[in-house]
Amino acid sequence: MPTFAAANNSIMAYILGIESSCDDTSAAVLLDTLLLSNVMASQEVHKNYGGVVPELASRAHQQNIVPVVSQALNIAGVSMSDIHAIAFTRGPGLLGSLLVGTSFAKGLSLAADIPLIEVNHLTGHVLSHFIDVLSEDGKTLVPASGSKPEFPFLCLLVSGGHTQILKVKSPLSFEILGQTIDDAVGEAFDKGAKLLGLEYPGGPHIDRLARQGDSGQFTFAKPRIKDLDFSFSGVKTSFLYFLRDRMAENERFIEENKTNLAAGLQKTLVDILVEKVIRAVKLTGINRVALAGGVSANSGLRDRMILESKKRRWQVFIPPLRFTTDNAAMIAITGYYKFLDGKTAGLDIAPVTRSSLMPGE
User: 224 with 306, same domain?
Assistant: First the structure.
């Protein structure tokens, strides 16, 4: 069993995290907040269909979950008898995928007589900022993200299924200040990429092309939504009609302008996100802002947030790329905080496909 010199000289618990909300099967082991392992198996098959196929995803999870969990335990140097609690993603996500992870976690919990902890996938993204790793000398803990935000802080949570601005009061207490009223920003990136003829998932391809293009060459309409809520359906429609009209004039328009189109679309989406964050900081007076979720990997968004932080004297917290995608480390860190709070789940708990971050989750 591994040991380390913790800052408080206290070892609380080994937490096994299991993530299976969409198309990545992942398992991780944490010792308190210290990451010991984080193993992931991705599913390449969905690229052939332009999106995640739920039936194929659940079948792949069934094949991957045993070896992934086994590998995570081996890398961490622990056995199931060392584990204090099993944290699993209850939702939101694809039902078939969630069922695989939930059922497996229940089986482990029952067989090993280990407490079960349900985790909201979105909470995991937010709390990924609190994962620690060992320093280079292997003697002390350091934040995996470089630094940890102090409470309260604002979090821009952006992914393929969710877009929210949150006030994070404590590890398990959140207030939703604003959220999308229709589509998520990740959907807008993927839809735009599909219109440009790019492979799924489209967000990374848009990002790659945008770095080569001129973001001022093409501009697209931004919605006017009150307060701190978002809307992205209009941007997708605007982009579609713009391409349709230009293609009617020149059938090679997309191919000849792909980098500039990607740059223009990315700038529009990033502008929408950052403008709301600016407003949220002004309304709350909180200048500590964290990014979380899959879209937080976007270089345009990361660069813009760093730029705004220097301009407006914010503290900005950007997660490492490995914690922007769906991963079990973020599930395990959430499980750790819930374990400390005594929040365990019964074997009758069922997965949920739709949910948003709510206080106390």
Answer: yes
| Residue 158 contacts residue 131 (beta carbons within 8 Å) | no
Q: What is the CATH number of the domain that holds 140?
A: 3.30.420.40
Average pLDDT of the chain to the nearest whole number = 92
Q: What gap in Å lies between CA 102 and CA 334, rounded to an integer?
A: 16
Are 109 and 194 contained in the same domain?
A: no
Q: Is residue 355 part of a domain?
A: no
> Identity (one letter) of the amino acid at 210?
A
Q: How many domains, the chain?
A: 2
Mean pLDDT, range 30-48, rounded to an integer: 84
- Least confident residue range of 71-75, 167-171, 223-227: 223-227
Buried b or exposed e, range 305-317, using 16+ CB within 10 angstroms: beebbeeeebebb
What is the residue range of 122's domain? 14-145+323-340
- Relative to beta strand 116-120, strand 85-91 is parallel
In a domain, 353, yes or no: no
pLDDT at position 2: 44
* Rounded-to-integer distance, Cα 351 and Cα 165, Å: 24
Verify that 85 and 203 share a domain, yes or no. no
Whether residue 72 contacts residue 332, with contact meaning beta carbons closer than 8 Å, is answered with: no
Are residue 71 and residue 85 in the same domain, yes or no?
Answer: yes
What is the phi/psi pair of residue 53, to 5°?
Answer: -95, 110
Q: How far apart are CA 275 and CA 277, in angstroms?
A: 5
Whether pTM > 0.85 for this model: the answer is yes
Residue pair 334/127 in contact (Cβ under 8 Å)? The answer is: yes
Residue 53 maps to a domain = yes
Q: Average pLDDT of 241-260?
A: 97
Enclosing H/E stretch for 317: strand 315-317
**DSSP H or E run through 173:** strand 173-179
SS3 for 7?
A: coil
| Ranges assigned E (strand) in 20-74 | 24-31, 34-42
Kindly report the backbone phi and psi dihedral angles of residue 16, in degrees, each rounded to the nearest multiple of 5, phi listed first.
-95, 125
Are residues 84 and 179 located together in one domain of the fold?
A: no
Question: Hey, which residues does 116 pair with through a beta bridge?
Answer: 86, 345
pLDDT tens digits along 185-228: 999 999 999 999 998 889 999 999 999 999 999 999 899 898 99
**Cα(260)–Cα(258) distance, rounded to whole angstroms?**
6
